[in-house]
Each structure stands twice: as structure tokens, then as C-alpha cells.
Design a protein that fits this description.
- The protein is built from six helices and seven strands; from the N terminus they run βαβαβαβαβαββα.
- By secondary structure, it is of the alpha/beta class.
- It folds into two domains: 76 residues, Rossmann fold (3-Layer(aba) Sandwich); 48 residues, no CATH class.
- The longest helix is centred in the last third of the chain and has 12 residues.
Length: 148
């Protein structure tokens, strides 16, 4: 399942990416572009815009809450997501690109020195040059997701 998320749901877009879902999000996209991309790329639109949700033929998940945890619960129900994807943490949360396994030396200059000394396994986004590792933030995100 692929998504395109409108400008009102940027935090939810990041979480969907963390969950491993191909999720397009650009804050400046207008409704016409969102509809076009949704149709061309077979993506579900995720929005809080009630007008956008009423467009005939559009595949839309209307999110009502402003709370991130509740939004995750809503998308879980609307998209009928029953379990955490095996692709969790496989995408860049910033740009949606699939992450690559990175040699430790490759990330030496882009991670904090403490992280470089204490971690051995890294992933790397080839599009935006961001490094990822399994720090304490991963456990807190997993805990948040398990609540949902």
C-alpha cells in the first residue's frame, strides 16, 4: 500500500515512512497535484481535508484527529493494517528513499562521535545523506506503535 499525505499531516507521513510504507509528502502540494499523483501512482490520499475526501473516485483516508497517536490508530483502521510491516525502518523518514546498509566508515563524518564509537550497524539514505542507527529513539517509536 502506498500513500500520498497532504500538508496537514507531516508527522503522520514520517511515521508511515518509519513503518516502511512508501509515503509521498511535500508540504506545498495542492489538491489537484495530490489527486493526479494518487491516480497515476495508485496511492491512497491521507488527509484531514473534508473537501478533498468528497471527490468522487479518489482513494482517500480522512483523518479526523490532530493527535499523532490517534492518527496512527485511524490509519490503522482505515487501511486495515493488522500488524507492523516487516519493512519497518526501511525508508528515510525525511525523503522516503529506501535505506541502504552502510559501512561504519561511510557514516563517520555524519553521526555524532559518541554514536560512531558505540554503534556498529548503520543505514544510510543515498538521496539525502542521512544516517540511521538503532538508538533509544527506535525503542520509544516501537513502544508508541505498540500502543496503537
Amino acid at each position: 500500500m502506498k500513500f500520498i499525505v497532504d500538508s496537514m499531516l507531516g508527522k503522520l507521513a514520517k511515521r508511515l515512512r518509519m513503518l516502511g510504507y512508501d509515503t509521498l509528502y511535500e508540504a506545498h502540494l495542492d489538491d489537484r497535484t495530490i489527486l493526479k499523483v494518487s491516480k497515476e501512482e495508485d496511492r491512497y490520499i491521507v488527509t484531514r481535508d473534508t473537501q478533498l475526501s468528497k471527490i468522487r473516485g479518489a482513494k482517500v483516508f480522512l483523518i479526523r484527529s490532530t493527535d499523532l497517536e490517534q492518527q496512527l490508530g485511524e490509519i490503522k483502521e482505515l487501511a486495515k493494517i493488522r500488524r507492523i510491516s516487516k519493512n519497518i525502518f526501511s525508508r528515510c523518514s525525511e525523503c522516503n528513499t529506501l535505506l541502504e546498509i552502510a559501512d561504519k566508515e561511510k557514516v563517520k563524518d555524519i553521526v555524532p562521535p559518541f554514536v560512531y564509537r558505540t554503534f556498529d550497524d548503520f543505514h544510510f539514505c543515498p538521496a539525502c545523506n542521512k544516517a540511521y542507527w538503532r538508538g533509544t529513539h527506535v525503542d520509544s517509536i516501537l513502544k508508541e506503535l505498540k500502543k496503537v
